[in-house]
Amino acid sequence: MNGNEKKKHNRGGRKPKADPSTHRYVFRLTDEENAKFLSLFEASGAENKAQFVTSVLFEKPIKSVKVDMAVMDYYTRLTNFFGQFRAIGVNYNQIVKILYRNFSEKKASAYLFKLEKQTAELASLCREIMELTQEFEANHINKGD
Fold it and tell me: pLDDT tens digits, residue range 77-114?
C-alpha cells in the first residue's frame, strides 16, 4: 500500500469542488454604508451577499428593479375604473332593453334622451382620463427608459 491508495479511499461527505473559493477578504462598514449596501443588495436580486460583492467588483451587470408604488397605485385604480366603465356599458344596454319593453315608444324616447346627455358627459370624462393617463405616462413611466 502506498500513499496514493489512501487518498482514493472515500470517507463520505460532499465531493470537493474543482475550483474552491479559498481566499477571504474582510471589510468593515459604518451604519450608513451598511444600510446603503443592504439596499443595493436587496435591489440586485442576488442570491447571497458574496455573489453580489463579486459581481460588483468584477463589473458584471447588476440587475436592479425599482418598483414605484405611485405608478402601481395609479395603474390599479385605472384598472378598477376601467372595470366600472365596462359595467356602465352593460347597464346601459340593459336599460335600453327595459325601456323599450316596459314603456311606450314616446316615453322610452324621452328617457333615452336624458340617458344620452349623461352618456355624453361620461364620454367627455373618459377623454379627460385618457389625456391624464397619457400625461402621467409621459412624465413618470417612460421617464426611466
Answer: 888 887 887 788 788 888 888 888 888 888 888 888 88
**Cell 356599458 found at:** 89
- 19-53 residue pLDDT tens: 888 888 888 989 999 999 998 888 888 888 888 88
Which grid coordinates belong to 108?
A: 322610452
Distances (CA, A) of 117 to 49, 51, 100, 114, 134: 62, 63, 18, 5, 26
The answer to whether 74 and 136 have CB atoms below 8 angstroms apart is yes
SS (H, E, C) the chain: CCHHHHHHCCCCCCCCCCCCCCCCCCCCCCHHHHHHHHHHHHHHCCCCHHHHHHHHHCCCCCCCCCCCHHHHHHHHHHHHHHHHHHHHHHHHHHHHHHHHHHCCHHHHHHHHHHHHHHHHHHHHHHHHHHHHHHHHHHHHHHHHC
